[in-house]
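Example record

The entry below shows one chain as it appears in the dataset: sequence first, then structure tokens.
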Amino acid sequence: MNARLTMPLFVIAAAICIKATAQNSYHYSVDLTKVNNDELKVELVTPEVTEQEIVFHMPKIVPGTYMNSDFGKFVHNVKAYDKSGRQLQVTALPDSNSWSIKKATKLYKIEYNVEDTWDSKVKHAVYEMAGTNFEEGKNFVLNTCGIFGYLEGMKKTPFELTFTRPSNFYASTGLVAESSRGSVDIFKVENADRLYDSPIMFCVPDTTFIKVGNTDVLVSLYSPKKQVTSKYVAEHLKSLLEAAKNYMGGKLPVTKYAFLYYFNSEQPTVQGQGAWEHSYSSFYSMTELPQEKSVGNIVDVSSHEFFHIVTPLNICSKEVREFNFNETILSKQLWLYEGSTEYDAHHTQVTNGLITGDEFLKRLSQKIVYSRKFYNDTLSFTALSKGCADIYAKQYGNVYMKGALISACLDLYLYKLSGGAYGIKDLKHDLSIRYGPGNYFEDDSLFDEITKLTYPEIRSFFTKYVEGTTPIPYEEFFGYAGVKYSPKKETMAFTLGGAALSVNKDGNFVVLNTDKLNEFGQKMGYKKDDELLRLDKVEVNAGNFQQVVNNLYSTAKEGDIFTVEVRRKNSSGEKEVLALSAPAVKIKKTEEHVLEFETPDASQLKIRNAWLNNPCNK
């Protein structure tokens, strides 16, 4: 064959192949340098469509939010075109998230404008940490579910995202860029599930990478007043992440993970505060406070979200793995996704010596208090899970309370049955191997599958306390480790006076009112609006207050002088620092749902040591 003829034919064949591949992907383009009326223009070159009519969707609901968001409410002026630039008929559907496109076999491009959720005047129920923020020249929070849509029946088609950004901006994400040249970043994902699992934040970079075992961990943040730095946060996350690695057997299940923090200084009381977990990253919206005062809270919240790399990345049901973004079809296993993750976040700290056993019990005690005081303790937890987006929405918060307690009791029960050889982290390890990131379990069969991996008695545990309506007998399960559970306990305890406190914009506690001051508080002489600065010469703030108080109480004796320094306005309206002092006294106090260590027998000690991984923790 003539060589001069072979080359053009090869090039033509390659071009045809490239064109065919391109047609089987979504190609999105967004220019972040062009914000108009707080909106971005989104352009999509669509994959090839074979139907005469097709529906373009924005997500109604996304995993991890457990509420209907209706992201289509923020999309305007949807237009569709063929390759010649002729418009195709587009009809908005009643669900507010979908648009029907006629003559779809000719579909080539879709264009629309999208506004950010944080500033929108549209009435909505978007979980703010899953929303979007467009601050031209400052910051873009792009939770992809609020920007990009998909075509009906084509969720598994690959996506390519091209962003044109300001030249001094940087894209922070758990994704690895396909390319980054000049001011253009390109990312590719295999399907809609991966797309909506991947938030991206653009801003002037403040980033720090830390290595944890085999994993590159990115800490990226936006702090407009520069009160928080990524280096400082990364330093304080390091010990937690090392503990998490040890807890998971010495290796993390991802090669890259991103912590993305947006610190709000403009409207800290308006913008929601919290986090949204993902398989390879997590996004946080928090009030901007001096980092020394806020880092404790940052680390605590980050701990929970980070453990979602186990569930649902490696362990989840079909409802989660093949999520229906436009129908509210939820899994009934929230005890696993949120409850066990919350438990792991605290359990890893006690097993690695970051907190004491007493502190661990105190945290679990508080969860029992909240669970039984504010939520329905006889509601089936699987029913709560299935209905948490609507009928049981007000009960959702219990997944972080009773959900974690279910895992604590299951952990202790497994150690009891195995003689201290097998606990919940071993169970989750085995489930991760069985399922992993590419598979899923059937929602109705999980309890039976866990029973096969463990002990017959475990099936009764799930039947009674997770599927059923029987309250958990905490005295039984905590008793396995020599921990006494008391529904109520009369104690004599030190007090700071009984003043009602709130946190101000500087992260300090302020006296809200003095209506219920006890005898000690009256002697101290607190006044409304006093700002607490130091407790016995130790600076206190919202991040360390409880720890400082606990340390003081642990060494104090009755009659010792407690001194609290406060900032108070004088008669001229100027603020001055005063030292309030009084002899320490104990007052009678009724505590509810108390967990405390007792002297264990040999069997209890074996379970306790396995449970806490450190006999020195008691």
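Notes for this example: The CA atoms of residues 194 and 528 lie 51 Å apart. The chain has a mean pLDDT of 90.
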